[in-house]
Amino acid sequence: MSVTANAHVEGHSDDHGHHHKETFVTKYIFSQDHKMIAKQYLITGLFMGALGILMSILFRMQIAWPGESFGIFEAILGKWAPGGVMDADVYLALVTIHGTLMVFFLLTAGLSGTFSNLLIPLQIGARDMASGFLNMLSFWIFFLACIIMLCSLFVESGPAAAGWTVYPPLSALPMSQPGSGLGMTLWLVSMFFFIVQSLLGSLNYIVTVLNMRTKGMSMTRMPLTVWSFFVTAIIGVVSFPVLLSAALLLIMDRSFGTSFFLSDIFIQGEVLHYQGGSPVLYEHLFWFLGHPEVYIVILPAMGIVSEVLAVNARKPIFGYRAMIASILAIAFLSTIVWGHHMFVSGMNPFLGSVFTFTTLLIAIPSAVKAFNWITTLWKGNIQFNPAMLFSIGMVSTFISGGLTGIILGDSTLDINVHDTYFVVAHFHLVMGISALYGMFAGIYHWFPKMFGRMMNKNLGYVHFWVTAVCSYGVFFPMHFVGMAGVPRRYYENTAFPMFDDLADVQVLMTVFAIVAALVQLVFAFNFIKSMFYGVKATVNPWQATTLEWTTPVEHIHGNWPGAIPQVYRWPYDYSKTHDNGEYIIASQDYVPQNVPLFEGEEELEH
Amino acid sequence: MTALLTIIVLILVGIAIWQMTKIFELSQIGRSNTQIATDTDNKYNGYLMVAFMIFLYGLTIFSFVKYSKTLLPKAASEHGGEYDALMLVSMLVIFFVQIITQFLLHFFAYKYKGKKGKKALFYADNDRLEFIWTIIPVIVLAGLILWGLYAWTNIMDINDDDDPLIIELYAQQFSWTARYAGEDNVLGDANVRMIDIDKANVLGVDNSDPNAMDDIIVKEVHLPVGRKVNFQIRSQDVLHSAYMPHFRAQMNCVPGMITHFSFTPTITTAEMRRDPMVVDKVSNINERRAERAALGEENSDPWEFDYVLLCNKICGKSHYNMQMKIIVETEEEFNEWLASQQRFGDSMAAK
Ligand code: HEM
Ligand SMILES: [Cu+2]
Ligand SMILES: [Cu+2]
Q1: A544 and A528 in a common domain
Q2: Residue nearest to atom 37 of ligand 1 (CA)
């Protein structure tokens, strides 16, 4: 292994003296450089995320002030909000596209796509991804998926509206709702391309991590970021193909009259020919991806948070091996818990018992991670950079949201909260907000690496604190709405007088949501302004140990101007001292990975 | 009102932070501007960590005080009592953990805020500690799992012991229908292919099945208190979910398949209306409705508590208004009501 890696290192550095001439197109558009592709993913993902958040504001306004007329509805939704009053079908469409954009486009492609691309080669000491061409291809397929999804917003009958899980028969029968016509076709086609890009990307990440590590970079010397991207890619390769098949079968049911998911249907006055299919089968296929998907979203965030916490606490991450073990355990278990989304789907209740068991098992590695993060802060010398704040925020929301998972994972308790706002509150905290915080942490932390400039920290502080208050302000009270029995995906709750006394909470949550959305503008401003006018970054602004901070601030193709640095130690030698209490390197509280062990220094068995 | 208050508070918080950053910035003039946290940043953000922790606890208390009374009243079914107990214990466990871990997280963040010259402790590992916090969740979760699984097995064991009442719940976009099995307590066969709208056979009940003749098709569910009910659940078009929150009951309605749920109602509608929590909730709600009525708004008549069946699986445009009333009453009242309903055989013969 190390021999081949070595050979590669030398072979590549040789042919790096001569530089191919870059044109604007090859540098910024059809770039094969992983750093540029990372930025492309980031900006595209953020754009899609901004749209998703805008949609959430629109439908939150509808829930808080049901049936009210708003000029902004009329302006944005046009004929779908006659007189400024949102239409019920459009409500469902907004919820659906919001979920899709957030989960897939922002937090899968935008998060994992950005940081896997940026950090894998830089942190393992490789000049680029295993295949730059495939990498470029996967971004452009992603871009195509985005375009198709955006087009679906403009079709006459409206975009897909069956919920982001697109359960058939609702999603399969155009007569069951307008969104299941052309809008759903485009949704499926877009997701098809999305899956393809995800597979191409993941394979690339896996191969790169396995084959292209620099000399000395053993698996147990990899930063936790790389570990989490690596395992995320594996989960993606295992589970996305199953979604692909579900989507293909659904397309066949829709367009070619097959009956994989449909049976015994009478709708709009006529019996349809479908016979023998089962919607429950679709649910199994969907959630076989769907559950791992939430870990695809959260693992990269966990990796980023682990790294940022260590750097800014000036301490090693606590329990490095346990962290790796829990990533692996989560990855394995995440593929056998999908049934907890289906306790009351009509599947065999015995299966429900099995899934309860596996689900509560997965709580254990998650708990270990949370405790390890907290211990990492203990006796640290904490530097409150914005990335650090978001990392601490992530630990907080991950705990809050994870704990309610204990309720939902228990088949008995799930009976009465399944598909209520309790679920919405749970997954937003544990997956949505946590992963988003992880992503922000990553952006603030590696902005200097991506753009060569620093983001403004004071704007970062405002961004964090207001977002932190508002996220809890939206999603903590939401648990009560769920416990009161309010189902999700309701256009308004006024049809049930028993929900009247929740009107205040709904308003409260919407106000918090609007403020949260507005403060993201501070981030957008900071991001764009810093890109062009930020303070110039130094080589290693956060005084971190990992290899990406040994590359020059100005990007070059191939990452290191000279030979690739060799690695001699694990990535968490922060505040390590000699026996006499002096730092290993005098007056510097960290030892980069490429610094050989000193005489008498022992490499701890982590 | 709350809205206005929150907006004001948030704006004030925003202004305060903005002003603070301004002060920081002014005090930074002349010093190097690296955009890396300084000791001052560390200090203020450390304090904010404590403030945030107080906010989090405050929000928790506020929500409990203010919103507890909006929650569902006590369970009106036999298994519901156990459900509520398990929920309570699980909630206690998670709130206990939540309060402690959030405290540690924010307190450590505050206590160990950075300062120039301070040394962090190189502390990479401790097998004992990690073992402890692996094993404690294992034990607690094992307890909850065992209890949960025991309850689940009982709830999902749907059998014909104790002479259950058999009722079919039938879902379609966007309404519910119920079918009682009649004297023989056996439902007649049915399939969507036998639906005949002209003859008002909307459930597709088999005309030729003798079991079907005494079936009773209604738009309101009546249940006798204390008698087990076995629901057989069907859908004719898309997925729906039969959600009866007051009974802690839910099961999806799947086209092409019959799903099942069973419970024993224990509290009649009349009794539930006298329950203190329900009385409180109803008067609360009616106050609001009276306010709205005074403004001349629609949908503001006084409300009386009733059990209800809701649709809880996205099913299209009117998903939000797919409901049916459930009435739990005494055996006699129930029998009287049932006797007054038309039988399927008679309704067909009438055509
Ligand atoms: C400003 C922030 C956000 C607000 C106010 C918000 C609000 C909501 C609400 C109220 C719903 C439920 C609608 C319903 O069921 O009727 C919802 C659905 C959803 N949200 Fe968010 N959300 C936000 C951010 C996010 C983020 C960051 C994610 C990323 C994971 C996300 C993912 C989802 C998903 C997957 C759904 C389910 C969609 C469906 O049911 O089909 N949201 N959001
Ligand atoms: Cu899951
Ligand atoms: Cu429905």
Answers
A1: no
A2: A99
User: What CATH number has the domain bearing residue A456?
Assistant: 1.20.210.10
Report the gap between the CA of A123 and the closest CA in chain B (Å).
21
DSSP secondary structure string for all residues of B25-86: HHHHTTS----S--HHHHHHHHHHHHHHHHHHHHHHHHHHHHHGGGS--S--BHHHHHHHHH
Same domain, A58 and A154: yes
Look at chain A and report how many structural domains it folds into: 3
pTM of the shown model:
0.92
**Do the Cβ atoms of A321 and A220 come closer than 8 Å?**
yes
- Termini Cα distance of chain B: 58
Q: For residue A402, what are the domain limits? A: 309-536
Distance A47 CA to ligand 1 centre (A): 17
Question: Does B72 lie at the interface with A, CB-CB under 8 angstroms?
Answer: yes
For ligand 1, whether the C-beta of A94 sits within 6 Å is no
Residue B29: pLDDT band (50, 70, 90) is low
Contact with chain A for residue B173, Cβ under 8 A: yes
ipTM: 0.92
Are A235 and A359 found together in one domain?
no
Q: Which residues of A touch B33 (CB under 8 A)?
A: 535
Is beta strand B175-180 parallel, antiparallel or unpaired with respect to B165-172? Answer: antiparallel
| Per-residue pLDDT tens digits for A525-561 | 999 999 999 999 999 999 999 999 999 998 888 899 9
Q: What is the CATH number of domain B165-350?
A: 2.60.40.420
Which pLDDT does position A40 carry in this prediction?
94
Nearest to B320 among A469, A472, A492 (CB): A492
User: Are A444 and A545 within one domain?
Assistant: no
Of B71, B197, B252, nearest to A480 by CB-CB distance is B71
* Same domain (yes/no): A370, A389: yes
